[in-house]
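Hi R.,

Quick one: here's the ABC transporter permease sequence you asked about.
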Amino acid sequence: MARNIYAKLAVTNLKNNRKTYMPYILTSMLMVMMFYMFDALTKSKDLRMETLRLCLQYATGVMVIFSVIFLFYTNSFLMKQRKNEIGVYNVLGMGKRHIAKMMAVETVIIAGVSMIGGLILGIIFGKMMYLILLKILHSGVEMKFAVSMAAIKDCLVLFLIIFMLTFIYNLLQVQLANPMELLRGSSQGEKEPKTRWLLALVGVLALGSGYYIALTTKEPLKALLTFFLAVVLVIIGTYALFTAGSIALLKILKKNKKYYYRQGHFTTISGMIYRMKQNAVGLANICILSTMVLVMISTTTSLYAGMEDVLHTRFPKAVAVTNYQTSRESRNQLQEALEKECDRLHLQRQSQISYRCGQLMASQKDEQFEINADAYNSSKICYLTLLPLEDYNHMEGKTETLNENEILLYCPDGKYNYYDLKIAKENFHVKKQIRKLKAEVEKTQSVYGNYYIVFKNTDAILKILQMQNYSGQNVPEAFKKNQQMLRYYTAFDLNGKNAENAKILGKLQKGLNKVPYTEMESRETSRESFYGLYGGLFFIGIYLGILFLIATVLIIYYKQISEGFEDRKRFQIMQNVGMSKREVRRSIRSQILSVFFLPLFMAILHVIVAFPIMVKLLRVLNLSNRALFAGCTVTTIGVFAVFYAIVYSLTAKEYYRIVN
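And here's the predicted structure, written out as tokens:
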């Protein structure tokens, strides 16, 4: 056989199957383009934010895994559609060795077009992506345009391996099958599926367990530990319920004679049973991808949109200064330095508060607070700030008094429901719960339980701080000493034209750092790092969201193509047994709508159930604005649902063209 015949056959096959191969090639090009741009950005020397670089590296890893899985999945669909065609070649006398050569040429053409086209697009749009990222980060850094040879190399290696593996898979499919299997390969599976009750039960239990974890997890730190377990359980449950649970439910409806033998129910249920058998995995994939898109975009958008809320939650005052020596001399030295530096930099202070305090972590169980080493391994962690009465009265302008073993208590995020409080072996009576405290914003939702406790004097505070046990822990002596003594804290807001000037506040920080044992942090000097992290997460969320959205669209498109070829035969059979064209169309349309909108319904249900645990995870990232997150989630779901419906209506045209 002439060598060029393989190339001609390969080109002809790709032309004849262009409705299925063109979307595959375009998607492969987009994946190459997106991987190149992401990898080039990660390797850019102009990217100076190491936290962002690390996030981008993790996202690049996600893209690699997703590209391998998704291209394999779509390739397997294409192979199933072409088995009949390859079987015809085999029956007409074309040996499997010749078919392999033809398929090799096809793979080379697809890989070449995808990689070359994708790299060209990546290089063209790479600069634009850099500019978008800088805009998101609010960065004024100038980035030079350069083609990343390292990223091109990574891209070529990755996708060459992927296309080579898909070719080997296709080759095995042809080599291990006989011609008759190939001829009926695209229409296999017409027997009524068996009911797999065990798998359906596993699906119900897995999904129910995942939902239970999401709805009952209360503490943000525990949410960090249980979230991924809940995700795995929901994924397992989704696949099991789509593959076995849906068929089990349809079989139950089929056994109900009164329901099954009604007009419209008979053909719909029978058709749905076969559809779910053939499309369950694809529908589950659409559901999982849709859920990922909704969660990723809603969370990262709310973090970015709520940046000011995040900064004000993390920094209640514009400037906070901590001195780890509470002697009168060190406090006077700090106040003098603060006065001098603020005058020099023309900074106007307002709403200033100052107090001495001790701070420690504890594990809470009812009114008992444990402060030993085991407290740090507990999910009931809380943060205790211990203030002397003298400083409290001075800060609040009060004249409160306390007896021995009496305390005042302030809990910003809720009410303490006990009359006594026990720290280690020390018992205290709660004389009064404070309603407001200038040191903390009221009703703040923090990661830990948060308590401010006012004691009669500093001796009581030092006695508690020195109970901390560091035995068996590799902790520096300086840290132990620092944690077992009082610190002096002063914080204030700023007014005037220099209040939001990060450079001037940076000079203030340098000036105050000259005071021994002093640290300063401010909202404005931290703004760039917060935008670097949260802006980067927003960029990655939108980027990966688009990637998963492309995958969802392609799966929906292939599902419509597959449904079209299957329903063309059913369309003819239904008409032959006496159904009118209108009845057939109505039956098939109801099945199609049920099948393709079921993943969207399930994805929205997953997001609604995941909402409470996502709120707690966002609190770990300092976003406590529940209303903002709810608004972003509802908006994302609405936009995605409209987009999903548009994609369905566009791909449905191809379906009806095939059926007719």
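The chain has a mean pLDDT of 80.

Cheers,
M.
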